[in-house]
Amino acid sequence: MEIIRVEKQIGKLTLSFETGYLAKQAAGACLTQYGDTVVLTAAATGPSRPGTDFFPLTCDYRERTAAAGKFPGGFIKREGRPTTKEILTCRLMDRPIRPMFPKGFRDEVQVMANVLSSDRQNDGDVLAMNGAAVALGLSSLPFDGPLAAVRLAHINDEFVVFPTHEELEESDLDLIISGNKESVLMIEGFSREMPEDIMLKAIETCHEYIKQICDMQLEFLEKAGAKESNYEAAAPNPIYQTLVDRYYNDFKSAKQTSGKQNRAEAVKALKERVKAEMIPDPNAEDAITDPVFKEAWHDLDERIVRDLILAGTRPDGRDGNTLRAIECKVDVLPRVHGSAVSNAARRNRW
């Protein structure tokens, strides 16, 4: 297989995608490079365990010290458990790509990203996010790409795309945006009391760069000959519409019950009643199975919560501008260095 490479200058340096040399047994693999930071991202898939009722997607990101030309010091020379930063990067990879798979897709998918080389200035996290989208695009998985991600800084009233670690020290913004050519899918980051108009401009600037990287990915996938997906969408749940027609209003009323505990009990009682009416004899030959009922009930729950929020009311009665009441106390325990507890929505946090 010949090596396919596409590159373009994004910001101060060149962003490139390459495939055809490494990880040939993966469903799709990509080398993503910016500066001297290189990340290998590979995607693999297989059938999930029988009875799986969710999409088993696993994203993993690892930064090895060897990537910077070093090895762990001290008595133990092996790499340890994933750092907090690596775990957070796994989440950054997962969040934008998960909704790009079709509803009902249940095959197991693993996306593994390893930083092979690091110049210690250009972070590998955003490169892994882009590499994940490219690797999935190269595979035969039903992934609705392209999908791109960028990091943006704000230094001296100017936006800087793919900033270095040194530039981030001077920036009042560290923003990661992921999306496709049509819309923004994920926003992550922080700023130092930035005005809303500048933040909006930052998001729009990120999306312009995202469009450029998506065009790069489309060109790359065309050159590499991306595989066609043979996935056939699953049939719709046979009882979902029946639940909507019969129990939508009852479920919506239960969801608007005042008090978290009372609301949970009202929903539980309704679910038991509906299940008894829909499945009077679980042992009957044509009885609705429990997984089918659970899936339909979950989808109806999701729809009702969404409808309530779009109508301007959350399930607990708050509107979009009202904060949940919170109570905080300090010095609640003796003989400790310090103690504090907060109480919100019947949940305590120490």
From TrEMBL:
GO molecular function: 3'-5'-RNA exonuclease activity; polyribonucleotide nucleotidyltransferase activity; RNA binding
Entry's Gene Ontology cellular component terms: cytosol
Claim: Transferase is one of the keywords in the record: yes
Gene Ontology biological process terms from the UniProt entry: mRNA catabolic process; RNA processing
EC numbers: 2.7.7.8
Keyword Ribonucleoprotein: no
Domain Polyribonucleotide nucleotidyltransferase RNA-binding residues, every copy: 248-319
CDD domains xref list: RNase_PH_PNPase_1 (cd11363)
Limits of the Exoribonuclease phosphorolytic domain: 15-142, 145-207
Keyword terms: Magnesium, Nucleotidyltransferase, RNA-binding, Transferase
Protein name stated in the entry: polyribonucleotide nucleotidyltransferase
Organism per entry: Blastopirellula marina DSM 3645
